[in-house]
Amino acid sequence: MSEQAKRPANPLFNRHVTDIFRRFFFSPKEKTPYRSAFERLRWRNVFFAFLVLYLSVSFVTGCYLIVDLKAQENQLIQTRIEALQEQENIKEDVLYMKTDEAVEEVAREELGMVKPGEVLITQKDATPTG
């Protein structure tokens, strides 16, 4: 085999790619007191920042959802209380309508019936005919 087949095509290029890979994904081997802003920004820090942001947004959204569900629960409880009160009123009306007093009242007012010996007095309509 020839000498070119045994050696890599461009050893400087391979070393450069390895250096870039180490620079962005791992800590630098030698720490210098002056680093550029881009060197200080590491991928793991960016990932951690996005993770914290995502968890914060999820937490706030969850809190708003819980508050909204509590408001709906309170509204449903209030509606249920009102419905139970209305149900009690209807039960009282049904019990009253089963009494003799209620039957007599309906017969007198709505049907115009009278007891024997009573005289029914009604008011004549004041609308002119003609």
Topology:
Layout: H1 3-6, H2 11-25, H3 37-40, H4 43-97, H5 100-109
In short:
The protein is mainly alpha-helical and 130 residues long. The protein has 5 helices and no strands. The termini are far apart.
Derived structural class: mainly alpha
Taken from the alpha-carbon principal axes, the silhouette is rod-shaped
Strand content: under 5%
How can the largest sheet be summarized? none
Helix count? 5
> What percent of residues adopt helix (DSSP H or I)?
55-70%
Transmembrane segments: 45-67
Organism: Peptococcus simiae
Protein name: Septum formation initiator family protein
Keywords: Membrane, Transmembrane, Transmembrane helix
Can you give a write-up of this model?
This protein has 130 residues and is mainly alpha-helical. The chain is built from 5 helices and no strands. 68% of the residues lie in helices and 0% in strands. InterPro entries: FtsL/DivIC (IPR007060).
Which short descriptors sum up this protein?
single chain; rod-shaped; Septum formation initiator family protein; transmembrane; transmembrane helix; membrane; FtsL/DivIC
